[in-house]
Amino acid sequence: MDLRPLALARAAGRGEAIVVNMEPDSFDIVFITAGLPTVIHTISPRRDGATLEDNIRRLADELAKMAAFYQSGHPESPLSPATPLLLTGELAAGPPAIGLLQGEVEYPVAPLLPPVALPPELPAASFTASIGLALKKTNIKTPRQGDAPFHDININIFTGKNRRSRAPHLPAGYIITGVLLAAAIVVLYPFYQAAWQLKAGNSARLAELDNLTREVGLATLTAEETVKKEETLREIITGTRAVRSVRESILGDRGNFTDYLGKVTLALPPGTDFTSVEMDSGRVTLQGEADSVFTVIDYATALEAAGAFREVRITRLDEAESAFSGEAGNVIKFEIIMSR
Q: Which of 49, 86, 267, 305 has its CA 20 to 30 A from that of 107?
């Protein structure tokens, strides 16, 4: 597997060039300077009645913006007007596309010719990206006269998925949840014992009340003693209701937190760790580390697909050193905010 812009640059095999791949669903633009792809951009062509001329004009505007962006970051090595613009793709197979684009830009436009021998009947313009992928890890031929050598970039986009997964660090959210559960058990257990004791006491007092009722039919008891017995019974009933109310309140508050934390944890992809979990009544904020930007995007997509959150947004992506001791190299630090 490879990124299509890198495969196009490899198929061109030039040290200085602009590669444009015109497909029906997307236009890929790659600036190659000093033998390396330095600026990569992809746009979607207009549909809904747009003509080839309309999309050529939009492509020319994007090329001008990309050239200005490159010049602002590389004032010491400006892009030469003689830099060849190599055109390929399904929409560039015929002469009209080359002529239309040449009328909009200052760079000399020419079809992209891969540095390999191809059968004459093969439509190379429609398979340029596949040809570039086939050239991966092969020796690119000697550069053209006066051109800089091309330096291939070999990226394994499955590196994070193929490596042996390390033992995950225990997220702070798990620790907090464990502490809350332990505290809830410690608090609830005395109430649980008290409830059973009160229940047993109620049974004994109810039996005693029956005996008193029978005795009232046999003998006359003082009004004061009867009132005391009734007050005792009311206190028992009130205490039982208070215990039940406290128990339901504690268990009810804990339920939503556990449910959301479970959904966030189940969607966690390999190579990703939490560094912070914050939750309030309106949203959940996650901060963590991942091995690549693609892993963070996959994670955000999985959270949105879970259906538990109204909106999932990636608010920060930074490359920095890992916060966990013993981790070598840089990681991608991210922040994801989920609205409920």
A: 49
Domain assignment present for 278: yes
Q: CA–CA distance from 131 to each of 56, 123, 137, 182, 257 (Å)?
A: 25, 11, 12, 61, 52
Check whether 146 has a pLDDT greater than 60.
no
- Compute φ and ψ for 79, nearest 5 degrees: -80, 125
Closest to 5 (Cα-Cα) out of 149, 135, 132: 132
Indicate whether 203 and 272 sit together in one domain: no
The pTM assigned to this predicted structure is 0.45
Place of tokens 């300077």: 33
Please name which of 155, 60, 157 lies closest in space to residue 103, comparing C-alpha atoms. 60
Segment 201-246, tens digit of pLDDT: 888 888 888 888 889 888 877 778 878 888 898 899 998 888 777 6
Q: Distance (Å, rounded) from C-alpha 127 to C-alpha 144?
A: 22
At 200, list the tokens. 């047993």
The boundaries of the domain holding residue 306 are 267-340
Does residue 183 register a pLDDT over 90?
no
Same structural domain for residues 55 and 196? no
